[in-house]
Every structure is written in structure tokens, then in C-alpha cells.
Amino acid sequence: MAGKVYFSVSMSLDGYIAPESLSDLMGQQWMELQQWMFPLRFVRENLRLGEGGEEGRDNDMARETFERTGASVMGKRMFDAGERMWPEEAPFHTPVFVVTHEKRDPWERPGGTTFKFVNDGIESALDQARRAAGDRDVRIAGGGATILEYVNAGLVDEFSIALSPVLFGSGVRLFEGVDAGRVALEQVRAEHSPRVTHLTYATRER
User: Transmembrane stretches, by residue range (predicted)?
Assistant: First the structure.
């Protein structure tokens, strides 16, 4: 049985998931947005940040997100940023399909991550990711424009937002340009932790 297609992101209270410029990634605002993750034991292990770290529900959710994912899809903008910032052992440990116009041979990293570059659109990338994932889920990893393409195409089954207590004021807004007349939501779960509020929604066509 095929798994779900989903995305999971951190979002500011005013609706942004990233700064506008790639040069501002890892800047103060972005670090504040992601601050809930960095102390977690699972994230520290996966990013090779050292031993130890916090347990608890946030840590469980980070681990569950990783374990349910059999393959990921991302856009070229996210890949370009990650190629500079990820450790040598990239944190996916599964196939990752990059939607791009660039023609490039697959890029294998230590630890099981292989980036494959798809030149014929988002549906082709998703089809390949589904086959690679088997009965596990496919994560649309980002960035915002790529997530929106999949949402507007009706290809996302559910999504989770970690709503962080930070304001951006500008940047990449998650739902900028969403086809609201087509997409309806059903709340699945809401969980609060000391750092963020986790919101999960199922999607369907109106």
C-alpha cells in the first residue's frame, strides 16, 4: 500500500518559513524559527551535532517524521542552500528527488542519501519518489514554492506545521499564492510544547 505525501515545516507566527534571500539562511531569524529543534537528541544525532540532547514529545515528533519518510522531493532553491550547509552525511538517509532544469548525474552522499535530479516536472519527481519510498511516506521537503506547487496540484495528503513564537515581517510565505478555492483542510491534531505548537491537517479538494 502506497504511503502518504506530506510536508512538515517550521513557520513563524506571521506565516513565513524562510528568509527571502538564501544568504540569510542560518541568520538570526532563521535560527530563532528552528530553535525548537536544535536541542533535541534525535536532531543532534542526525545532524552530527554531538551526543546528548532533550527527550520528550518534540523529540518524538522529529523522530517520527524521519522514520515515516521513505523518500523526499525538493526544489532547486532548497537543494542549492542545503548543498552548502548540510554535513557530508546529509540528514535524509533516503533517496531525494530534486525538481530542476539542471541536468546532473545522481549525487551520492555517505549514510544512504542519494540526490537524483528530475527535469520533467513535479509529477514525475513524485512518481519516482513514490516508487523509491515503497509503503513509506513521501515528504515534500521544500522550499516554499515547491510545496505550494504540490498543494495547488492536489498532490499533498497532509501537512504539519511547527508554529514558532517568532515574527519575520518578510520572507518566503508558506501559502502565498495558494489556490484556496480548490484546497480544503481538516484538522487532525494540535499539540503544544514549551517551544512550539504542532498543527497537523489533512487536505482534500473542495
Answer: none
Contact 98, 76 (CB under 8 A): yes
Return d(Cα 128, Cα 112) in angstroms, integer. 17
- Average per-residue pLDDT for the chain: 93
CA triple 7-183-131, angle to 5 deg: 45
Instruction: Specify whether the CB–CB gap between 61 and 37 falls below 8 A.
Output: no
Cell numbers for 203, please give them: 487536505
194: nearest Cα among 162, 167, 171, 150: 162
Q: Kindly give, in sequence order, each residue whose CB lies less than 8 Å from that of residue 195, ignoring residues fewer than 6 positions away.
A: 35, 36, 58, 164, 165
The residues near 125 (Cβ < 8 Å, ≥ 6 apart) are 73, 97, 98, 99, 118
Whole-model pTM?
A: 0.93
CATH among 2.60.210.10, 3.90.226.10, 3.40.50.2020, 3.40.430.10 for 5-205: 3.40.430.10
With beta carbons less than 8 A apart as the criterion, state whether 25 and 177 touch: no
Tens of pLDDT, residue by residue over 123-176, are: 999 999 999 999 999 999 999 999 999 999 999 999 999 999 999 999 999 999
Parse the chain into domains and list their residue ranges: 5-205
Give the model confidence (pLDDT) of 77-121 as tens digits: 999 988 988 888 899 999 999 999 999 999 999 999 999 999 999
